[in-house]
Amino acid sequence: MTEPVEHRAQVAVVGAGPVGVTIANYLGRYGVRTVLIDRSEEIVDYPRAVGMDDECLRSFQGIGLADEMLADMIQNVPLKMFAADGRCLADIRPASKEYGWPRRNIFMQQIAERTLRAGLGRYPHVRNLLGHELVRLEQDGTEVRLHLDGARGQRALVHAEYVVGADGGRSTVREQLGIPLSGDTHPRKWVVIECDNDPLDAPYTGLHGDPKRPYVCLDLPYNYRRWEFMLFPGEDADAMLRPEKVCELLTGHVPDPTALNIIRARVYTHHSRVADRFVDGRICLAGDAAHLMPPWAGQGMNTGVRDATNVAWKLAAVVTGRAHPRILATYDTERREHARAMVNLSDTIGRLLSPTRPVVARARDTLVRGLTVAPPVRDWLVHMRFKPVPRYAEGIMVHGRRPVRRTSPVGRMFIQPRVETTPDGRVVPLDETLGDWFALIGYGHDPLVHLDPGSRAFWDRVGTRYLTVVESRSGRSRTERRTSTTGSVTVEDVDGTLRDWFAKHGRHGGGIAVVRPDRYLAALTEPRDLATVTDAFERLLAPSRSTDSEYSKDAWRSVPVVEAETS
Q: What H or E segment, with its residue span, contains residue 26?
């Protein structure tokens, strides 16, 4: 037997689906030597994810691919829920762009994956080992060793400082670690059918609670359409994929089922499961390897991309010496409970969709109609406020001594309004000015004015960008508005959105926000307390030059109140 070809990397990513390739793109952007591994050389051509939200698009913005993704999407697609009698129960059309992007977008995963894989070509330090299957892994205090078998009989051994298992619901990484995937498998299967000659004028996603056979109908880009039908007990899954059965399922939903060009049909079993832990030593789990959920909330891939954005910057911070390896524990702390919340949301929507007893379906319809009569409930539904927004109470953030309030913005994703840049006067989304690492954003304050040399040295060491936000077209001259004497970037608050945000959350209408690389708000402080907050972050991140005794996961507890009460 030939000796394996050896490869060395700072991070190895197992699984080249959308989550794994997103991680690899982020690591490439951060300058991390990365190996991407997958048993298949090709993109899987099954019917898969079709919904992308604003948080996910913002993640792709972070790797410079959002515009390319959006070019292949239908934006602002309504979500409609239909009653047993076919009448519309709810028409969900979220209009806000709090994070800078539309909230409901329809795409095709195969196309998106091609865009993500093409993005890796920008990074010569990211290497692909496609067509290689992981057969064994082992880790110790210094590295993880991945033993791979190639599709053509070749063998490889990858030495990596850290590993991310993004290798799907049947994850070999998770199995080798012995991590349970706790939860339930749903008894009902669903058949998914796609055609490429859409016969319907229905530009929305429809959830049809028809007790005769619940189904979903989706308008897809480029004249594609998808149907998803529930199968009943006793129906043979393989038999339901035969052409005559597919036509039978579509009868009554399209004028002529035989005229459709069916390109994909597949039966799926739905799971509601979350791994018992997302981190094991030097190995992290992400995406379907960490959690599985039914498709009804359209959040499976979106949740995985949130994982990717969270874990990628932390791994990069560790391997580049910006942070202590122990911060990886916060990946589990921050992401696992939110993944569970998304699973629960998907289950709830599934329960609303799937009653097959007419009396139960009618009771559901009566309840939903009654609830949506109330304007607050209708507004909550129309604007998708039922979707759990990630809110991290513990992790890489500084809340202050008081108990964390539910109204606190700390631990939530920071807003992304438009700003006008210096010196060219371009109007761009805020993230385009923040850099790839931490950012200190002062509204009406230059953060650098309030940093002593030691604090400045820490923030510089972790790659921080400094922003001073001023009011749009303020009373000062144009030259004064666009000049910084300290080296911070000055931007104008074009729409007044940042003014309103700081007025709501900061004391006296101002303050300094600490924003993480994944665009979550890590702290909000008054200028006079910035040095104290800096000290807390230095102990929290404890870069590799620090000793273990200097590291404290409870560093935030020593910080004074750094955010204002909100009315």
A: helix 18-29
Residue 220 in contact with residue 206, Cβ under 8 Å? no
Does the pLDDT at position 460 exceed 90?
A: yes
Single-letter amino acid, residue 19: V
C-alpha closest to that of 565 among 512, 502, 506, 524: 506
Angle between helices 18-29 and 54-62 (to 10 degrees): 40
- For the chain, the maximum distance between any two Cα atoms, rounded to a whole number of angstroms, is 77
Q: What is the pLDDT of residue 550?
A: 38
- Contact predicate 311/59, CB 8 Å: no
Helices (H), 207-299: 243-250
What is the C-alpha separation between 208 and 228, in angstroms, rounded?
Answer: 10
Nearest by Cα to 110 from 54, 29, 40, 174: 40
| Interval 64-94: pLDDT, tens | 999 999 999 999 999 999 999 999 988 888 8
Per-chain mean pLDDT for the chain: 88
Q: What is the pLDDT of residues 402-443, one digit of tens each?
A: 545 667 889 999 999 999 987 778 899 999 999 999 999 999
pLDDT band at 385 (very low <50, low <70, confident <90, very high): low
Residue 427 CA to residue 63 CA, distance in Å, equals 20
- 146: Cβ contacts below 8 Å, ≥ 6 apart: 12, 14, 37, 134, 136, 137, 157, 158, 160, 163
Q: How far apart are CA 173 and CA 287, in angstroms?
A: 12
pLDDT at 56 over 60: yes
Which tokens go with 342? 């998304």
Q: Which of 258, 254, 201, 255 is nearest to 227 (CA)?
A: 254
Radius of gyration, alpha carbons of the chain: 25
Query: Which pTM value belongs to this model?
Result: 0.91
Residue 467 neighbours by CB under 8 Å, 6+ apart: 433, 434, 439, 440, 441, 442, 447, 488, 489, 490, 491
CB atoms within 10 A of CB 258: 10
Residue 258: per-residue pLDDT: 92
Question: Rounded to whole angstroms, how far apart are CA atoms 462 and 317?
Answer: 8
3-state secondary structure of 210: coil
